[in-house]
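pasting for ref
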Amino acid sequence: MKRVILASILVLGTMLSEAQSWNPYVSQGIISPLLPEEFREPGVASFNLGNSGSSPLLFDRNNSDNNLSVIITMSDGLPDKRNPLSALKGQGVSYFDWSYDRSTNTFTGVQKRDIPGYFQTSLTVGFQANNNSPLDVASNGFQIKLKTPAYLGGSNTTQDDVVSSYTATRAFDYGDAPESYGRARHEINLNKDPLSGDYNRYIVLGSIVDHDPFPNFSDPANGDNIYGEDDEDGVIFPVLSVGNSYVVPVTVTVHGESFGVLNAWFDWNGDGDFLDPGEKVNGAPIPVYSSGIIPLQVSVPEDAVFNQHIYARFRIGGNTGPVGDNMWGEVEDYRIFIHSAELSATALVTQPSGYGELDGAIELLVTGGKLPYTFEWSNGASSEDLSGLGPGNYEVVVTDAANNKVTASVIITWPDRIENGRTVVDIPGIDISVYPNPVTDKYYVNISRDGKYRLELVNAAGSLVYNEIVVFDAGNGNMVQLSREDLVSGAYVMRITGVDSEVFRTVKITMMQQK
């Protein structure tokens, strides 16, 4: 009898020992920074899965109840792949057969191979927010729950069979002027009123804002353009000169029932901060309740630095200074050039697009002096810029409010005329053409007037690579054949000069590699 009792105790002890030799678990549920729904960029949920027991969890192909199951339920987020199962990554994925239920937004993995004892692996799920959750009710995330094999009989530790992680959708925008100007950060708050569906804290400069994972201080003040899109689109600067006042248009986009205040600073003395007297724009802060263009009055002080770049910072959202955190809105930093007080005018020319076209243009850049300016063009125009122009000499006299004057002049010409693949040069009573152009091998020069002409070919470096006097008459059809020979590909200029006449013309020629 004692032997029977002892044997029973041994069997029971062995069973209890075996029951405690498995312990499937999940741990360390983590969500990487999750961006709001509007940014449509994936976050990553990650967790560890393992068996802390000494015995393996054996795969039972005959009884699915004896296999471990993993159930992942997403909250306010969807798989970031068209095929949801492709959103699952990590070594642990291969231990399970996976399915996805769209109606419950749930992944289920059923064990398909042995899971060793004393074993741990990791899994990740890429997902996008489909609903923004605020800080006080963080709900973007997931819950992972294990369904343990039936043969465990509930004897394993169960407090590690469930793990969850939830976060709020948060994005930030930082200023990107050099570091001496201080950190300016705005939370891009995209929460909506649950009743009206309107945004209550979504207001930006311009029309777009991107998220920055960290401050990107930079000399050009464009360090936050890390996604290939320039979100500094709220301010358009006129040409700024010392001692003048300007209207700077600031575009603001207000979503839903949002609001904010606009502030702006200019580092007029160029000392690397926005903290000096007079560097905050007068009249700010400006309350903003609707989308539109705000005409900001900006005066450049007489003692401002000039002929160099300075930095400006614009902030929309809460009423804060040039540095620090703001609970909503956007910050935009700009690097701008300040011109001296001396009146100057520079003409930027667009030549006509083709022979006979009247689409030339002149854009005038005037700096310094005292606003406003007046303009007197040689063709009688009084506007600052001209368009619809043909060949001619154009001169303008610019006068400022203090009667200071400056002149600028430009020449507009038609390009060479191309007819039937020939470059035709117009000289009264004579036609000159070079063809084919571009040149790959042999080419021809045709001059309609009989006579001796010097043909000179100059390469892009200015070196003379061909120089001959050629007779053109009816005997050779007023045409001479030339060969490219060993000339390298590139741009050349042929100078055609009459030996016994006043004919002179240049023709642009392109040498190309023969296909």
